[in-house]
């Protein structure tokens, strides 16, 4: 019992860190819209916030149980918070992706995935209110195990996000501009680390070792996703300065 509680606390702390970082990253990317007036920033920020939403209910339960001393989220609310944002915001990511790389096929791709995600959401909500055990089961206070169609959907979502992200990153690396290529490298790290962390989190049981591995990859993905799409000055100075310094040493 002590081991389970300690694992819940450790998981909750790391979930809290990841959730805070993800929300900051999402809102910072969305804020770029007001500066550049480009809807892509709104969609990207929302997409990241939604991709991280499966980790929010565990964070909320951790705060409720271990900080406020109240009851954890009940099952239906846990499932709702962790899943309902993903289908619509995943479509927003595809809007951005196709707008930049597959403009001619954008309407077909977006409509197709919008239909699939809408159908998934209808089925999810049906079982949420009629038979939630079909969706999954809470494990302790801060973890969940999803079953059946939800797990299949999550695996497909992770894979498609990874593949489209890597394609986008590869295109970015073709630029002649050093800063754009740096964004491409950061995006490679972001989508790869998200894929690894989310996949392992889906298929492996939670223990203290896997917990650290999962959350490290996930936190890294959030930070590099932000850098890949906004490239703040501190990242630019850190990575480009180091690269320039290495070039000078070799000359």
Note the overall shape: globular
User: Any idea how many domains?
Assistant: 1
> Into which percent range does the helicity of residues fall?
over 70%
Largest sheet data: 2 strands, antiparallel
Query: Which topology does CATH recognise?
Result: Rhopdopsin 7-helix transmembrane proteins
Return the CATH architecture.
Answer: Up-down Bundle
Main sheet: which strands, in order across?
A: 1-2
- The class by helix and strand makeup works out as mainly alpha
N-end to C-end Cα span: 60 Å
Kindly report the average pLDDT value.
88
Q: What is Rg?
A: 19 Å
Low-confidence region ranges: 245-251
Fold and architecture overview:
It is a single chain. By secondary structure, the chain is mainly α. It has a single domain (2-250), classed as Rhopdopsin 7-helix transmembrane proteins, CATH 1.20.1070. Helices cover 81% and strands 3% of the residues. The protein has helices spanning 2-36, 39-51, 56-67, 75-83, 86-101, 106-130, 148-173, 178-203, 208-230, 233-250, and strands at 136-139, 143-146. The chain has a two-stranded antiparallel sheet. Strand 1 and strand 2 (143-146) form a beta hairpin. Helix 1 packs across helix 3, helix 1 (2-36) runs parallel beside helix 9 (208-230) and helix 3 (56-67) packs across helix 4 (75-83). Mean pLDDT is 88; it is low at 245-251.
